[in-house]
Amino acid sequence: MHTPIITVDSVSKSFGALEVLKDLSFDVAPGEKLALIGPSGSGKTTILRILMTLETIKSGMIRIDGEPLWHMPKNGELIAADEAHLHKMRAKIGMVFQLFNLFPHKTVLENVALALILTKGLSKPQANVKAMEMLEMVGMSDKAAQKPAQLSGGQKQRVAIARALALKPKIMLFDEVTSALDPELVEEVLNVMRKLGAETDMTMLLVTHEISFARDFADRVLFFDSGKIVESGPPDLIFSDPKEERTQAFLRKVIAAGHRV
């Protein structure tokens, strides 16, 4: 058995009086593709933001590649992580957001290269070479000189994926990356993710409402509701024969909304 690349152990998180994660525990194996599904507000995106160190935790322990994420050792004890530790841990993880987060005044190439210059210390020529390789991988090298305003939503999302890939993370987090796109643009982004899944050994966590894609792509599905994992298992089992009534009810709503399962 491999040591898990992600361990979430008894993690709780609140926003004010609202408890959004309740004593949550799960592991992710190296190279695993994990789909997180469930109703809005169930805690799925919060988990990704915690892994990316964009949100703190109230209690519990998270380990990335065997190292504590929100804690660090000092004098034989674990204490709250400082910014230097968080920065080091962040280098293992890339995240693609729902709304692209590209710099509008920079070209496609500059958007991808900037991350390499700032975080990896590459020179501009070195960064441009690496950035073009990543744009090639997502089918966007022909748009390198364009600004984000000249791109479709699907193209912007592919650039955002290239930017995250450029930093060579061990773990990639995808937060509803198709939900802001017109329906005809969704498939081009999903195809890039399929390619990444086939051609790399990255661990991938995917929050999505694209149930049919999750079924084809994921090794395992976690169904979240009210800050807890209600059901976990292989996609065929979760989508064809869910055991929990709450999962069944969610999937009925998804099908009624016109999504394929």
What does this structure look like?
There is one protein chain. The protein has 261 residues and is α/β, with parallel strands linked by helices. The protein has a domain at 100-168. It is built from 9 helices and 12 strands. The protein has helices spanning 44-51, 83-90, 108-120, 124-137, 153-166, 183-199, 211-217, 235-240, 245-256, and strands spanning 6-15, 18-28, 33-37, 59-64, 67-68, 71-74, 77-80, 93-96, 171-175, 203-207, 220-225, 228-233. Strands 8-9-10-3-11-12 form a 6-stranded mixed β-sheet, sandwiched between helices. A 4-stranded antiparallel β-sheet has the order 2-1-4-5, covered by helices on one side. Strand 6 and strand 7 (77-80) form a beta hairpin. It starts with 5 loop residues before the first strand and ends in a 5-residue tail after the last helix. The model has no long low-confidence stretch (mean pLDDT 90).
